[in-house]
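> example.struct
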């Protein structure tokens, strides 16, 4: 018997995706460490049609031609090593599908190298964590279009479904899929940080207990319908099985990361596009990680005194902040996608991206429906902030943020992402920015020249 698809890498994500695919298609799996494969077959596989292969040759020969091989392995060097180890066994037109969080430039390189050998390559972003992998993730494929056509059915069957269809769509050539997944993660970092800042304000200024905060997040989420808000509400309610205390209070406040947020910011800088809210999400994780230093610093300063606020009023401002800054995080992400699409010729369809993010993925939320409408009205939008769907709401909510930001500052609570979102909005809607002074300074100390409002040309002044 020949199997329709093969999967390499039986981490939890790989296992769950294999089980998901096996509901509709025959699949063969391989993992370098044999015991993992054995555990998987013994403990997780029931009646599904899954073949366990215990050698690469066995694995490859179990697959129907042209072979379709999905890699669910750690991004970076391991992907290259596995591809190299596969090469001797592959034949022309076989398809390798990288389902990990690979850097988009690695994907471009691999695609080029493999195409020269006649092997087809798809860089596929998969979002949804363990649960999504098993029950239906959001899938973001890019690469050779005709190769996608051959695996489309398998990916569609595995993906999350909404009434608009499966949460998968061919996004574009080369690394388009991995680029879009990277920006998905950038937005994820932004929204996670926005929620963390609101949590910080709730506990430090309003002095709410986790249970109460859980109620607040759950109530807001009736409107927002955001997965990240939903899990935040649940996290607040969770007791530690060991001590019975609230688990959130026992978790060390040092955030880790595996790179996709940082890469989003690096790419934004390379492409000359600002994503300050997402950037704030990355920076906040970096600052959190120097815990010892923060503890030492804290001892050198008096504690800020808590601002006195009207609880009802401030809760409404926090809810506005969550909406406002989340919209801005998406707006920054889509703006960067547009820049990247133009630079790298991805030819991205932003409406379709918002559609496949509507379910299965980590940043799914009620905001993705109006985002799709905005792109349906204008495919080539420069920014979401001026659209019918968001303009008025952003304007109203921006006005509600000033008291929140000032009381946070009085209380010594950093709201970096929320503040960045507000400043991004205020900058984008400023006809006049002070960059004339920057130009004057550059010309003053370095003769870097400037342009004038009243005359065409390039000018330099002897300033002293
Ligand atoms: C997803 C997630 C996932 C990502 C984790 C961890 O869409 O399912 O984005 O792919 O790897 O969220 O990311 P960090 O370790 O960088 O926080």
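> example.seq
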């Amino acid at each position: 018997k020949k199997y329709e698809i093969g999967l390499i890498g039986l981490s939890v994500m790989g296992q769950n995706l294999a089980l998901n695919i096996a509901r509709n298609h025959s699949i063969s799996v391989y993992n370098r460490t044999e015991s993992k494969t054995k555990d998987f077959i013994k403990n997780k596989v029931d009646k599904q049609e899954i073949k366990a292969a215990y050698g690469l040759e066995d694995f490859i020969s179990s697959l129907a031609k042209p072979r379709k091989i999905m890699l669910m392995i750690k991004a970076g060097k391991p992907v290259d090593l596995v591809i190299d180890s596969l090469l001797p066994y592959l034949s022309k037109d076989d398809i390798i599908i990288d389902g990990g969080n690979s850097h988009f430039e690695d994907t471009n390189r691999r695609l080029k190298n493999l195409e020269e050998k006649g092997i087809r390559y798809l860089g596929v972003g998969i979002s949804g964590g363990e649960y999504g992998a098993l029950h239906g993730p959001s899938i973001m494929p890019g690469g050779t279009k005709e190769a996608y056509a051959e695996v489309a059915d398998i990916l569609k069957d595995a993906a999350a479904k909404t009434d608009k269809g499966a949460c998968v769509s061919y996004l574009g050539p080369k690394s388009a899929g991995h680029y879009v997944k990277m920006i998905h993660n950038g937005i994820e970092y932004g929204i996670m940080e926005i929620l963390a800042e609101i949590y910080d304000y709730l506990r430090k200024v309003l002095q709410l207990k986790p249970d109460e905060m859980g109620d607040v997040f759950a109530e807001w989420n009736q409107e927002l319908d955001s997965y990240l808000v939903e899990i935040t509400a649940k996290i607040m309610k969770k007791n530690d099985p060991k001590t019975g205390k609230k688990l959130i209070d026992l978790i060390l406040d040092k955030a880790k990361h595996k790179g996709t947020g940082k890469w989003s910011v690096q790419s934004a800088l390379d492409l000359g596009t600002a994503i300050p809210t997402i950037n704030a999400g990355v920076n906040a994780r970096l600052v959190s990680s120097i815990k010892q230093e923060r503890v030492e610093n804290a001892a050198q300063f008096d504690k800020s005194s808590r601002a006195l606020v009207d609880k009802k009023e401030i809760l409404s401002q926090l809810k506005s902040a969550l909406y406002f800054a989340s919209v801005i995080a998406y707006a920054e992400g889509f703006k960067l996608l547009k820049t990247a699409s133009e630079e790298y010729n991805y030819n991205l369809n932003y409406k379709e991206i918002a559609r496949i993010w509507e379910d299965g993925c980590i940043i799914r939320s009620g905001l993705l429906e109006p985002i799709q409408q905005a792109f349906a009205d204008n495919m080539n939008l420069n920014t979401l902030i001026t659209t019918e769907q968001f303009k008025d709401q952003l304007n109203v909510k921006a006005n509600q943020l000033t008291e929140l930001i000032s009381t946070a500052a009085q209380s010594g609570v950093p709201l970096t992402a929320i503040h960045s979102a507000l400043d991004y909005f205020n900058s984008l809607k400023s006809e006049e920015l002070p960059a004339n002074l920057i130009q004057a300074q550059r010309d003053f100390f370095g003769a870097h020249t400037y342009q004038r409002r009243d005359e065409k040309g390039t000018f330099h002044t002897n300033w002293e």
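> remarks
The longest strand covers residues 120-127.
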